[in-house]
Design a protein that fits this description.
alpha+beta, five-stranded antiparallel beta sheet, 12 helices
Length: 377
């Protein structure tokens, strides 16, 4: 595997700019001249659309701007990359972030693509979810897996802790998740029920399904929102950025408050209907005990046609904990057991009407109790 010092960054076939290794450990970035004329800022706060050389700090993304760190796999995907590197006789700790982006190439989440890219080829086989789940279990518990090449092809660019594959279902791009070594056997069913409950609460989500299994209660799947099938059959990739990337903060360290997320949403979208979406999602996370609400679990999509940002559909909603059992994102300073006073305080600080905020919170709490009460008890 060749070691690259320079990568071109593309969106939809157009060159956005160039990344180059600086001082052996920092990935400096500069926009292309053509993109400066007709493109958009790929990260409004960290990378404004200017003729300038952007040099990141080493922390918190090991020498990358958050915008590009978002492209890298996390958790399960990183594990697969490291196992593939070891298989190719490369020491994972010696492969820098620039070359990890080259491994992602054009297969990452969102619209950003990196060239030249490192490619490992494997044959595409028909999906057998139980077989894949068993291979996921093997790779989590040992250094051995029969189908490492296939797992890498299917999930090497994915994020999150749980094993997953990126696949096509009925001509659309989907993500299908599998239990981790610490998950309950009904983890997939629970996440599916959470998705249905969230939709009843008025939260935007893509289509979700529970795929049958002979080994557990089922595998949770969700249609991807960063891929759109066009009328001519081609797939358009949508540019997306997580809160972690936009604010240059690590999702591994709880440091966010929903007050900040409300302000970020208003500043980025200039739309109070988007702020209301964030508030509704906050209420759901509180009442449904989704405490893994870290900065990489909130994202925004960019519409090139409207030249505007909006919140992405919600994702990774399930019964969960974060460090110390608290919310990864505090509610007006309270991460342990936020209640109505904290909820309404968050609404008040962003100038959401108190009556509307209370109506959303009460409605969300009622739906969650009705739909998920047996899980929450």
């Amino acid at each position: 595997m060749e070691n690259y010092n320079v990568l071109d960054v593309h969106i939809g076939g157009e060159r956005v700019g160039r990344l180059a290794l600086y001082q052996r450990r920092l990935a400096a970035f500069e926009y292309a001249d053509n993109w400066l004329q007709s493109g958009f800022s790929i990260s409004p706060f960290g990378l404004p659309l200017q003729k300038k050389l952007y040099i990141p700090k080493y922390d918190p993304f090991e020498g990358l701007n958050g915008c590009f760190a978002d492209s890298l796999p996390d958790g399960w995907g990183r594990l697969l990359v490291d196992r593939m590197l070891a298989k190719e006789y490369r020491k994972p700790h010696e492969v820098d972030m620039l070359n990890r982006l080259a491994i992602v190439g054009d297969s990452g989440m969102g619209a950003l693509a990196y060239y030249p890219c490192h490619k490992w080829h494997s044959l595409q086989a028909e999906l057998d979810y139980d077989r894949i789940s068993e291979q996921c279990r093997k790779i989590l518990e040992t250094d051995y897996c029969d189908d490492l090449d296939e797992l890498f092809r299917l999930g090497g660019s994915s994020g999150g802790a749980r094993p997953k594959v990126l696949t096509m279902i009925d001509g659309e791009d989907w993500i299908v998740k599998f239990p981790s070594s610490t998950d309950r056997r009904d983890a997939g069913e629970i996440e599916y029920r959470y998705s249905l409950c969230a939709k009843k609460c008025g939260i935007s989500m893509t289509e979700t399904r529970l795929f049958p299994s002979g080994q557990c209660a089922g595998y949770f799947g969700t249609k991807r929102f960063d891929r759109v099938r066009e009328a001519d059959g081609t797939t358009k990739r949508i540019h997306m950025q997580s809160v972690s990337a936009l604010l240059e903060v690590s999702h591994r360290t709880p440091s966010m408050d929903y007050n900040s997320l409300m302000q970020l949403t208003l500043e980025l979208t200039k739309d109070y209907s988007e702020v209301e979406k964030m508030f509704r999602l906050m209420c759901f996370n509180i009442f449904a005990h989704n405490r893994d609400d870290h900065s990489r679990n909130f994202s925004y999509l960019y519409s090139e046609k409207q030249r505007a940002w909006k919140m992405s559909p919600a994702y990774d909603l399930t019964y969960s904990y974060s460090l110390g059992g608290e919310h990864a994102t505090c509610v007006n300073g309270n991460g342990r057991d936020p209640a109505m006073p904290e909820i309404l305080s968050v609404a008040g600080k962003i100038d959401l009407r108190a009556s509307k905020a209370k109506e959303i919170a009460e409605h969300t709490r009622q739906i969650v109790v009705e739909e998920l009460g047996d899980i929450l008890r």
